[in-house]
Write a structure and sequence with these properties.
The complex is a heterodimer of chains A (about 375) and B (about 290).
Chain A lengths: L5 E12 L2 E12 L3 E5 L6 H9 L6 E6 L2 E2 L10 E4 L11 H10 L5 H14 L15 H13 L5 E5 L7 H18 L2 E6 L2 H7 L2 E6 L2 E6 L1 H6 L4 H6 L4 E11 L2 E6 L2 E6 L4 H5 L5 E6 L5 E2 L8 E12 L2 E8 L6 E8 L12 E5 L5 E5 L1
Parallel strand pairs in A: 3-8, 3-9, 6-7, 7-8
Antiparallel strand pairs in A: 1-2, 1-4, 4-5, 9-10, 11-12, 11-14, 12-13, 14-20, 15-19, 16-17, 16-19, 17-18
Helix pairs in contact in A: 2-3, 2-4, 3-4
Chain B lengths: L1 H39 L3 E3 L2 E3 L5 H8 L3 H32 L2 H12 L6 H12 L4 H8 L14 H25 L3 H9 L4 H29 L3 H6 L7 H9 L5 H26 L7
Antiparallel strand pairs in B: 1-2
Helix pairs in contact in B: 1-12, 3-4, 3-7, 3-9, 5-7, 7-9, 8-9, 9-12, 11-12
Classes of the chains: A alpha+beta (about 375), B mainly alpha (about 290).
């Protein structure tokens, strides 16, 4: 499995239902062996991407290539992909082993061979004891694992997962995330995982593809997306962020200034050439994470501003302060996250504070 | 609190009344009549008056007289045949309906169910005239060259009863099969495709097994309705088309032997209850009930 070779390529793929377009000219490459998560709010077209790849629906235009071969018109039952459906879609009249072995038995594989591989797959998903149960006798998490075993037993080139954890409660969802990731490492199969939960995406994915309104907004590692979002949507959608609007100023090496309601801020533009190239005076946002913001001290020379704490919220390991900063006519609401202390945070509601963030912790996003 | 306290007894009385009614209605209108029938079957008749002495004479007569058991058996075979033919014709029709989209599906379903709104007797007359010597069926077969001259094969015999009952009861088979097919989640069929099954494999391994409950209830519906029917055999059966329903009817009518008729009804009821139980047993979705 070479992570650098492309397994599947979507080339200017569009999809419309009647006259309603849901995907606009999508280009996407899925690498062999990676865990790619497609992340987006509902209605972003993320599930449509999965359905087009799986062959559950025809493309309106464009093409899908597998190992360089066009498979856009290949019927669903001949594509070497298997899907884990959102509500599992287990066959209610078949036992767990009947369900898991289904993909093999329709290919007329010998009974003995099927039994061996079913036992193997059930062992992998830790359901060996449940082989003779019916789906109605299983819990949600167990059904989920049956659906996964059923998909991976056919040794597909790609496993498509359509929000498979959405129906599980939080604790089980966390366990399943770890479990899915470990299975993916073990069987070294490419996973395409669709979700609207960014925490889920960060925790599992090698790469994340963020979608909105039928477009791909950004494709990159979780780290890239978190620290170098390329647009306002990704900056806002992906984790908590402070965005302050302004006009771009001068480039100073790997840094660039921006004139905002909070004064002149300096942010990093390293490895983002489009920000270096953007014209001075162009509209942009300074973006910095709540955990990057801190109470200013003498060492801080850049990115100084003052504000008032308008609200304090204890959130377990950390405390989040909402701060109103800048002149009254252009007040900005910012969030500051500091580690919680047992004797109460040093912060007090209504207190005036002086704040700062390090230039390399801030970044710029074109408006 | 005081308000709730005053409404509670009234509510409780109402719910008690509803409960009593729910049990009383079936008891009074179903169980009691059945019990009276069962009781009558142990009496006998002497010169037109009922003798209220308990005896098993009616049942002995039913099992020993050479007339009744063969007719009973032939009627069961006839009704099983009707049920099978109805299923074979109704299944493709119901399946075709589920492949239609939206409005067409229900429009066509309504069309198939419209015959249920028509008078039973009129339908039998209509079918009899189609099957008759100068009827549409014979004319069509002669015109097509399949028959040399009109045949009497289709009317006033067992064939006629079979054909007529099948035509009359098909809507009762289509509906449960359609409903069970429609209840199958589409995503299961997509999952089967996704796992590499061909169209016929998906039908045989997923659609068919999941629709069997509908088939079972359709079959028991049709069987029960057919075996209880005496009007159809009376009107299209002629002399050779003698069914158990006709014998039963004649015991209450012409022969005026209610106790013996009651005993025959009990025999029929046993078969009907057995058919319903079998239908219910197979009708349960395997695996989905814990």
């Amino acid at each position: 499995m070479n992570q650098n070779t492309d397994l599947l390529t979507l080339r200017s793929v569009s999809k419309s239902y009647g006259t309603v377009p849901v995907l606009h000219d999508i280009d996407l490459s899925i690498r062999d062996g990676e865990f790619l998560t497609v992340l987006g709010p509902s209605g972003s077209g993320k599930t449509t991407v999965l359905r087009l790849i799986g062959g559950l629906e025809p493309l309106t235009s464009g093409e899908i290539r597998l190992d360089g071969q066009d498979i856009s018109r290949m019927p669903i039952n001949r594509r070497p992909f298997n899907t884990v459906f959102q509500d599992y879609a287990l066959f209610p009249h078949l036992t767990v082993s009947g369900n898991v072995g289904y993909g093999l038995s329709v290919r007329h594989i010998q009974r003995k061979e099927i039994a061996r591989r079913v036992a193997e797959a059930l062992e992998l998903v830790q359901l060996g004891r449940f082989a003779d149960r019916f789906p109605a006798q299983l819990s949600g998490g167990q059904r989920q694992r049956v659906a996964l075993a059923r998909a991976l037993i056919c040794q597909p080139r790609l496993i498509l997962l359509d929000e498979p954890l959405a129906a599980l409660d939080l604790e089980l969802r966390r366990q399943m995330q770890v479990f899915l990731k470990s299975i993916q490492r073990e069987i070294k199969t490419t996973f395409l995982f669709v979700t609207h939960d960014q925490e889920e995406a960060i925790g599992m994915a090698d790469r994340i593809c963020v979608m909105e309104a039928g477009h791909i907004r950004q494709l990159g590692t979780p780290h890239d997306l978190y620290y170098r979002p390329n647009c306002e949507f990704v900056a806002r959608f992906f984790g908590e962020n402070n965005l302050v609007a302004g006009k771009l100023g001068a480039v100073q090496g790997e840094l660039r200034s921006i004139e905002t309601a909070l004064g002149r801020l300096v942010c990093s533009i390293s490895s983002q050439p489009h920000l270096k190239a953007a014209a001075e005076g162009a509209s942009a946002f300074a973006a910095f994470r709540p955990e990057a913001l801190h109470l200013a001290d003498a060492k801080d020379t850049d990115n100084h501003f003052s504000g008032t704490i308008s609200d304090l919220a204890f959130a377990g390991s950390s405390t989040v302060a909402t701060i109103t900063a800048g002149a009254d006519n252009a007040a900005q609401r910012l969030r500051l996250r500091v580690p919680s202390r047992v004797d109460g945070s040093a912060l007090k509601s209504g207190e005036a504070v002086s704040l700062s963030f390090a230039p390399h912790e801030g970044h710029l996003v074109l408006a | 609190m005081s308000e709730a306290g005053s409404t509670q007894p009234a509510e409780r009385r109402l719910s008690l009344l509803v409960t009593v009614l729910a049990f009383a209605l079936p008891v009074v209108f179903v169980l009691v009549p059945l019990a009276i029938f069962l009781g009558y079957s142990f009496f006998s008749v002497d010169q037109g008056t009922i003798v209220y002495d308990l005896s098993l004479g009616n049942y002995v007569r039913f099992f020993t007289d050479p007339v009744f058991l063969p007719v009973f058996w032939n009627t069961i075979v006839l009704c099983v045949s009707v049920a099978i033919i109805c299923i074979l014709l109704a299944y493709p029709a119901a399946y075709f309906l589920t492949t239609l989209k939206g409005r067409w599906r229900y429009a066509l379903l309504m069309l198939l169910l419209v015959p249920l709104l028509m008078s039973y007797v009129i339908k039998i007359y209509a079918i009899r005239s189609i099957l008759g010597l100068n009827g549409f069926l014979n004319k069509a077969l002669v015109a097509l060259g399949i028959l040399q001259e009109p045949s009497t094969l289709f009317v006033f015999n067992m064939n006629a009863i079979l054909l007529t009952l099948t035509l009359l009861l098909i809507p009762f088979a289509i509906l449960p099969i359609f409903l069970s097919l429609e209840r199958i989640p589409q995503v299961l069929l997509r999952a089967s495709d996704d796992l590499g099954a061909s169209g016929s494999q998906t039908f045989l391994r997923i659609t068919l097994p999941l629709s069997l409950p509908g088939v079972a209830s359709a079959a028991s519906f049709v069987f029960v309705l057919a075996i209880g029917d005496f009007l159809t055999p009376q009107m299209v059966g002629g002399i050779s088309g003698f069914t158990f329903g006709r014998i039963l009817y004649s015991q209450f009518g012409t022969a005026y032997n209610w106790p013996f008729g009651a005993a025959l009804s009990v025999a029929l009821a046993v078969v009907v209850i057995a058919a319903i139980l079998v239908g219910e047993r197979f009708g349960r979705n395997r695996g989905t009930s814990v």
